[in-house]
Design goal:
The protein is built from five helices and two strands; from the N terminus they run αββαααα. With 199 residues, the protein is mainly α. Pfam families: K-box, SRF-TF.
Length: 199
């Protein structure tokens, strides 16, 4: 029952606020918080709640918020203006909306663009130099690794040759051990008489 009554009374208050705004040309702002925490508000079309609160603050002399909140509000306004200014400047740097600018302003934009271009070129040159340096380092590393690989391969081949030589010497010594001793030595005799005469 209380909820139904609240809804009816709330709607009635909203209706009366609208009527006063239309019939009496008054500035009205109405804020209602339900027991559930839900907010309902109405404000005259020609104004805003902040404007009405400022007028109330000025006329009644009561402080609705402290200096810290005012400073925050001022800071927000300042940041919004600064943001708008930077948006305009960015459009000018892109070459948009420059027809209304004076020659001095155009020269300032040109100088800013030239400085930006110089910074971009410096950064690009720095990156290219870094890439070249890295390329040289990789090339040196590659040479070093190739040298190590060749050295290891040569050492491996030398080891295999030594193994082969050792195996050959071992086989020869084994063969010499088991070869029968010859009882006499052979002497070559010339078959042709001419050769025999020379000897």
């Amino acid at each position: 029952n209380r909820q139904v009554t609240y809804s009816k009374r709330r709607n009635g208050l909203m209706k009366k606020a609208k009527e006063i705004t239309v019939l009496r040309d008054a500035q009205v702002s109405l804020v209602i918080f339900a027991s559930s925490g839900k907010i309902h508000e109405y404000c005259s079309p020609a104004t805003s709640l902040v404007d009405i609160l400022d007028r109330y603050h000025n006329q009644s002399g009561k402080r609705l918020w402290d200096a810290k909140q005012e400073n925050l509000s001022n800071e927000i306004d300042r940041i919004k203006k600064e943001n708008d200014s930077m948006q305009i400047e960015l459009r000018h740097l892109k070459g948009e909306d420059i027809t209304s600018l004076q020659p001095k302003e155009l020269m300032t934009i040109e100088e800013a663009l030239e400085n930006g271009l110089a910074s971009v070129r410096d950064k690009q040159s720095e990156i290219v130099n870094m890439l070249r340096k890295n390329g040289k380092m990789l090339e040196e590393e590659n040479k070093h690794l190739n040298y190590k690989l060749r050295w290891q391969q040569e050492m491996g081949m030398d080891g295999n040759v030594r193994d082969l030589e050792n195996g050959y010497d071992h086989q020869r010594s084994v063969r010499d051990q088991f070869q029968p001793q010859m009882p006499f030595a052979f002497r070559v005799q010339p078959i042709q008489p001419n050769l025999q005469e020379r000897i």
